Amino acid sequence: MDNETLTITDNRTDQTYTVPISRGTIRAMDLRQIKTGADDFGLMTYDPAFMNTASCQSAITYLDGDKGILRYRGYPIEQLAENCTFLEVAYLLLNGELPTEDELGSWNREVLRHTMIHEKLKKVMEGFNYDAHPMGMLMGAVAALSTFYPDARNIFDPASRNEQISRLIGKMPTIAAYAYRHRLGLPYVYPDPELCYTKNYMNMLWKRTEPKYAANPVIAHALEVLFILHADHEQNCSTNTMRAVGSSHADPYATTAAAIAALWGPLHGGANEEVLRMLDEIGKVSEIPGFIAQVKDGKRKLMGFGHRVYKNYDPRARIIKRVAEQVFEVTGRNPKLDIALELEKIALSDEYFIKRKLYPNVDFYSGIIYQAMGFTPDQFTVLFAIPRTVGWLAQWQELLGDADQKIARPRQVYIGQDARDVVPFAQRGKLQTVTA
Ligand code: ACO
Q1: CA 143 to CA 68: how far, in whole Å?
Q2: Nearest ligand 1 atom to alpha carbon 304
């Protein structure tokens, strides 16, 4: 409805204000007119962590946390995972519609054309220590890309922007695979443009001396589904970072490197690594009750559980559970699955978790699959970053075309000292000198 309004009475002044409501929101700037006097700045909202603030309008991903619904551009995630390839979904997220056969053909060629990286970037990666964390390598290498492609700063030139988007999506698996092999001391494998996106990634990860790498189709399909599930998730922490940094008009490589940094944190994408460490620590099913007791005492967190938006089962976790069974038929069952299933069963029947609406999120099962595929836990978040790059770029592109957006610059509520004069150094007490 267009003519919905909110009437606010300021009890400090007895003045009444009417502000429009649009799509269930009021504009925070409409509160600025609410003042106690001419020199009053005007009313602001205080919302640490954006608990109840929409920072943008977006047409990309729809998420209903209470009902457990996730859709990209209107299509349910379950249907996309069942029927599409990752690059089809990437096209959808970036362009708004699923590609026709011709469009998909040229999009595939465009992305795979960009999978090679500059030999000097390879050298940058070789410079990392042998035990460098793969997320640190990924973040550093992506930031370094901006030095190779200075034209990326032309962010308002659509042709340049499209070039950087396909370049970045093409290069992510290559950089990720090099970070993987660097850790193992293996020579880097060049991309094979005859392979599809996921099979090429597997080729760069696991090819040894065979002339042509033959990817296992079940594992390739599982990766494809996992990539689709991770491709976008509206205004999560790393996407918000992408938009905040992008709003300063930094180039897409620097901006994506910042989003990678945000993803790395254990409360966000880094949780999949933490889940495995937690399952390792629990060790066996009989230790679960003791662990749950520690969580309920507030001493621990059940990693891979809980979500800011989902207050119902995360639909991605449901699909991942099915994929896990398919992968285990090839790799053998990961014994951690039994601990995870039991942990989930106990948690979902426990009052502590029910009351707080804590359910498994996407990270709870993904690590178990990745480990069965042969990845070490420190690689898990990299496997999240590759597909999420598509979502970041789709959101970045949307941001740049949104006339409502400006540089992201929140306000603060200042709670520090009032104005005071600097005491000359010689007159400050001894204690102050020591602490200074
Ligand atoms: N284990 C135990 N208790 C939890 C957990 C958890 N994983 N998550 C939340 N809670 C509790 C909190 O202690 C709090 O309890 P209280 O009301 O008694 O204080 C209550 O549930 C609400 O939690 P908040 O921290 O306020 O929820 P918020 O929305 O801020 O945090 C988050 C969401 C960060 C995902 C949180 O649930 C968490 O830390 N989970 C573990 C890390 C994780 O799995 N992150 C991945 C998220 S998905 C993703 O980013 C891809």
Answers
A1: 35
A2: 44
Residue with CA at minimum distance from ligand 1 atom 41: 303
Q: How far is the CA of 328 from the centre of ligand 1 (A)?
A: 29
Verify whether residue 363 is a known catalytic residue.
Answer: yes
Which residue positions in the chain have pLDDT lower than 50? 436
- In Å, how far from its chain's centre is CA 265? 10
pLDDT score for 430 = 67
For ligand 1, atom 44, name the residue with the nearest CA. Answer: 304
Residue 169 C-alpha to ligand 1 middle, in angstroms?
A: 31
Q: SS3 for 155? A: coil
Predicted local distance difference test score (pLDDT) of residue 34: 98
- Residue 268 annotated among the catalytic residues of the structure: yes
Distances (CA, A) of 204 to 173, 215, 290, 335: 8, 11, 42, 27
Looking at residue 429, its pLDDT comes to 81
Distances (CA, A) of 77 to 35, 60, 157, 289: 46, 12, 32, 34
pLDDT in tens, 285-321: 999 999 999 999 999 999 999 999 988 888 998 899 8
User: Mutation test of ligand 1: which of 234, 299, 307, 313 has the most ligand atoms closer than 8 Å to its C-beta?
Assistant: 307
Query: Which domains can be identified in the chain, with CATH numbers?
Result: 77-410 (1.10.580.10)
Instruction: Report CA(380)–ligand 1 centroid distance (Å).
Output: 20
Radius of gyration for the chain, computed over Cα atoms and rounded to the nearest angstrom: 25
